[in-house]
Diacetyl reductase [(S)-acetoin forming]
Amino acid sequence: MKLKDKAVIITGGAGGIGSGMAKAMAKEGAKVAIVDLNEEQGNAVLSELQEISPDSMFIKADLTEREKLHEIVDTVVEKYGKLDVLVNNAHASRQVNFEDTTQADMDFSFNTGFYPTFYLMQSAFPHLKESKGSVINFASGAGLEGQKTQTAYAAAKEAIRAISKVAANEWGEYGINVNIISPIAMTPGVEAWSKEHPETFEAIVSKVPMKRWGDPEKDIGPIAVFLASEDSNYMTGQTLMADGGSIQIR
Ligand SMILES: NC(=O)C1=CN([C@@H]2O[C@H](COP(=O)(O)OP(=O)(O)OC[C@H]3O[C@@H](n4cnc5c(N)ncnc54)[C@H](O)[C@@H]3O)[C@@H](O)[C@H]2O)C=CC1
Ligand SMILES: CC(=O)C(C)=O
């Protein structure tokens, strides 16, 4: 088991990729705390997780409530006695043309994605220093390629990649690695989004060399397990493209 007894936090753990990673990590022996504002879905995912890893937990939280972010880390460390892995996966945003993007659109994307990632990394730091742990953050082709209608989301995603690289440089000496996954996977979030933006959706699918959307647990899960495990100890500041080959960084 690659993650035996590792204590993991996954934000957005009730969602598509979040719950897929949670199951993949639990199957490798991790104790997983999923954090999400969707209580019904969070409890449903928790029931599945507890069948695999009985110590798993669900913390209902709205990550835009910045003053409560520190409590999430405290709650998990109190229960598990340590923190090995922080996965900043939750993110919500609205798609709008560049010229119509408002301050509210920008704030929504930064408040659900960028700031929770930043503040949770700060709160997790002393614990990760002790465990020589890992951070896994999330990017998107929307940011890497500047996809249309994604101004706020693209900006927040690239800001997340930027701070991940700074932390990788600063925290490497403590044995903490910070890496980024840029996924493509079929999830409830993408399904809803595809109905509103069918043309962008089709454009993304047509560019995937593997000609299919990834599966959250089977395709993204093993990459998250690798980044959370000792197998990736000498890898930091990297963006791993888990996207069927859509974007090839050269
Ligand atoms: N699915 C895909 O193809 C792609 C996904 N990504 C990124 O991967 C990550 C996961 O994506 P999906 O699973 O598709 O997302 P999703 O929308 O299916 O799930 C996101 C989860 O985050 C939770 N969440 C949202 N705002 C929250 C808040 N304020 N507080 C607490 N929880 C909140 C939602 O309730 C949901 O359970 C995200 O960072 C996304 O931007 C990036 C590129 C493509
Ligand atoms: C949701 C997202 O970031 C996509 C499909 O690129």
